[in-house]
Amino acid sequence: MDKLIAQLEKASVPGHAAPYDPGFRPAALWTRAYRKLAAASAGRRPVRIALGRLDGIVFHYALEILPWSAETAEATYRYIERTLKYLLWQKGGCHVWVAGCPEAAARLAADYRAGGTRAFDADVMGETIFGAPFTVKACTETELPAASEPQFKMGGCWKGCRIGFDLGGSDRKCAAVIDGKVVHTEEVPWSPVTQADWTYHHDGIEDSLRRAAAHLPRVDAIGGSSA
Predict the structure, then answer these.
(1) Nearest CA to 85 among 64, 46, 116, 54?
(2) 52: phi then psi, degrees, rounded to nearest 5
(3) Of the given ranges (13-22, 38-47, 110-119), which has the lowest mean pLDDT?
(4) Residue 65 scores a pLDDT above 90
């Protein structure tokens, strides 16, 4: 194992070991250990990642890395690559710009393409979701596209006839509201974990929805969650 990676693995051992996975190392602890080393390095380098979509939305994320060398390359690339993968699935985008580390940008471009080690992520975030080839480009900080993050106001409207349900492991809960006022709630025991027949799940969910709908003049929206 790479010497620096071994050091970071040792520093990220959790205080309470996972009995079924003793080799588990939480990403948060590994990242914290790397950032601590980078912050203490006089030669640390700033890196900025921009993640863009076709509609002009661009997210920015800033990192500090250790000086790139044969001794630090593997750990630093892992840090940057894991950060990018997280950003892709947290925010979403098909175009990536990396400023401050052309070495990592070149490896990312090779990995996030057809046939690369991250081909799945590149395909999903590229053609599948955004309908465009996934790209990774090295650039300078001045060449980064300007950040343009969307601002949305969530909630605030209680009008309408709505149903909400929650599928738990031992019961399913369902509620109906009219203009924010609860008119029906119910919990029905069930055992989805032990039932392999899909019709059991389908029929149970439909039963709860129909029970709730019986208390409404119409159904404007349905929202649900599952364990």
Answers:
(1) 116
(2) -120, 155
(3) 13-22
(4) yes
Task: Indicate the residue type of 71.
Answer: E
Classified as helix, coil or strand, 87 is: helix
Tens digits of residue pLDDT in 77-123: 999 999 999 999 999 999 999 999 999 999 999 999 999 999 999 99
Q: Is residue 68 part of a domain?
A: yes
Same domain, 128 and 174: no
For position 170, which CATH number holds?
3.30.420.40
Q: How much is the pLDDT for 151?
A: 84
| DSSP run (H or E) holding 165 | strand 161-167
Nearest-angstrom CA–CA distance, 107 and 111:
6
Domain extent, residue 82, equals: 45-143
Edge-to-edge strand ranges of the sheet holding 181-189: 181-189, 171-178, 161-167, 221-226
- Cβ–Cβ under 8 Å, residues 141 and 100: yes
* Per-residue exposure over 19-37, b if at least 16 CB sit within 10 Å of its own CB, e if not: eeeeeebeeebbbebbeeb
Total of domains in the chain: 2
Token pair listed for 160:
């309408």
Separation CA 170–CA 204 (nearest Å): 12
The residue to which tokens 């029905």 are assigned: 188
